Amino acid sequence: MVLTYLMDTTAVRAESTKEETDVAVVRDPLPTLGALDFRMIELLFFAYREFTADADSILVRYGFGRAHHRVLHFVNREPGLTIAELLEILQITKQSLSRVLRQLIDEDFIRQIPGDEDRRQRRLYPTMKGRELAVELSCAQVRRIDQALAETGAEDLGPIATFLASMANDRESAREWFLRKDISWKDPA
To answer: Are residues 66 and 139 both part of a single domain?
Structure first.
């Protein structure tokens, strides 16, 4: 399947009345199939919504959001991660991370420890409480993934993994993470 990214201007019809002199109103919806194929976009949108909703329902008990989840996930996957490394992975600003990290530290989900070689460097480690929450969040998401994969009936999940990796492979930080964590679809020996 080839997705086309050209806008078919015939699919868009702007109607304006005398009262709408500044902005034309478009009344026709974009077609599902046309110059743009909206099927994958909407499948990904709704899949992501449900994938994150499972974790969101757990996070709300703690007064946390998705940013807390991402920090917990990566700190648990790479204990000792520096703040600079985490900023690069998450592609967010220091200001955005600061509030979330402060809350996770204050509530004993994460510990911040000076680096061994460079005491100015701050390394992040999960506490047992942080590890337990990260595992609970991941279990909820793995259940959804496993259920969806089982419904596909696919024996070979390689093409699905290749598709997802290709979607996520634009940034250097993602490529480095995939290599460092051996995120591939090779059968374990």
So the answer is: yes
Residue 22 within any structural domain of the chain: yes
Which of helix, strand or coil describes residue 128?
A: helix
Instruction: Examine the pLDDT at 7 and tell me if it is beyond 70.
Output: no
Task: Tell me how far apart the alpha carbons of residues 170 and 187 are, in angstroms, rounded to a whole number.
Answer: 25
One domain for residues 94 and 137: yes
At 115 the pLDDT is 83
Q: Residues 6 or more apart from 27 whose CB is under 8 A from it?
A: 13, 15
> Model pTM?
0.82
- Name the phi and psi angles at 101, rounded to 5: -65, -40
Spatial separation of the C-alpha atoms in residues 30 and 77, rounded to whole Å: 41
What range defines the domain where residue 27 resides? 1-37
Are the C-beta atoms of 76 and 131 separated by less than 8 Å? yes
Confidence check: pLDDT of 9 > 80: no
Torsion of the alpha carbons at 143, 144, 146 and 147, rounded to the nearest 10: 110
Flag whether pLDDT at 6 surpasses 80: no
Residues 107 and 120 in one domain: yes
Confidence class for position 154, pLDDT limits 50, 70, 90: confident
Total number of domains constituting the chain? 2
For residues 30 and 99, membership in a common domain is answered with: no
